[in-house]
Amino acid sequence: THDFRESPEQPDFSFEEIERMYYYEHYSDHVDAQNARNEKTRHTERNRTVDDLLKNNKTCPEESIYQIGTIEESVPPGTLALIVSEFYEEFERRFGSHIHILDWALHLDEGTPHIHERHVFDCKNRYGELCPQQEKALEELGVELPDPSKPKGKHNNRKQTFDAVCRTMLFDISHKHGVHLEQEPSYGGRAYLEKQDYILMKQKEQLAAQGQKLEELTLKIEDVDNLIDEVSSVAYDKAVELVTDEVKTMTHQEDIDMIEDTKVWLQSPERKAPKKERDYAVARLDGVVRRIRKAMQSTLEKMKAVLLHADKKKSITEEIKKQTKPSIVEALRRGMEEQRKKDSEKQAQEKQKKQNMEL
User: Fold this and answer.
1) CATH 3.30.930 in the chain, residues?
2) 8 A C-beta contact, residue 106 and residue 77
């Protein structure tokens, strides 16, 4: 409820249970009497239950969201709670005879501190039975139509006046606490969304983003075969490149290094042979190195061609797939299970946090 729980031993009811108990306690007599009248006039198809009152748009509790600012800029939770608490006191003083606050909760886990509050309008009908009815309750409270000279309608009803009075009350209390608000309501645009539906909009956006990210990061199990085909093929091609490069590095490299050392030795000033003969020898050795490199390249191309031949590649990649598929599938399943577990734990934490924050 909207009162602080004084003791941990106090029963912890959900808002739905609180609202249901309130409706049964206050409106069940009306429901029973109306059903009796229906039976008397042989119109039992009109019979309703108290639960029907809770579900019907005209008789169910009305919800209000109190939020000051946006996710980018807002007041501290304590300030919001203080302002709204004083607002509820004034609300009860002015409207408590016909409008009853059933429950409210301060939410801190959705970006911007905000308060969800639910209330019900009621008054006695012509039979003297207390029942939920908004317009009649406001009329008995003395709330006038926005334009008394015009008939009551969708754009001229007491709820509009009531909302304006509540806004003025909230502005006055906020101003007393040093919080200045825009006093002109804006319906239909971004400002209205920020004040009324901002939290729900952000939640939907976050859920959509999380769903997309989960799909991108974990992949679909049914696509694993295609993934493994592609990965195995790429892995094999890369392995061939690495192997042939390694072969190129290892084979004949010692011979080339020895020839290069010999060239350095021949070109050393300490050698007594004529320079012309030494240059000739170096040139011949360069030719030997070129032939070795050419032979190496030819050998590597032949080796690569054999390894990349369709039949050879297919047989080896099939073996790669056979060896890697179980581990990849298991890793994906494990990743998806971990993600689901995290999501479930987060939802449980948020639910618990919400219950703990109910005031």
Assistant:
1) 15-185
2) yes
* Predicted TM-score of the model (pTM): 0.51
Alpha helices in 187-272 (DSSP H): 190-192, 198-218, 224-250, 253-266
Residue 132 backbone phi and psi in degrees, to 5: -70, 125
What is the third-level CATH fold of 15-185? BirA Bifunctional Protein; domain 2 (3.30.930)
In which element (H, E) is residue 13 found? none
Helices marked H in the chain — which ranges? 15-40, 50-55, 77-95, 134-140, 158-176, 190-192, 198-218, 224-250, 253-266, 275-307, 310-357
DSSP state of 43: -
State the virtual CA torsion across 232, 234, 236, 241 in degrees, nearest 10.
-170
The pLDDT tens digits of the residues spanning 84-119 come to 899 999 999 999 999 999 998 888 766 678 888 999
Question: Which are the contacts of 147, defined by CB distance < 8 A and separation ≥ 6?
Answer: 156
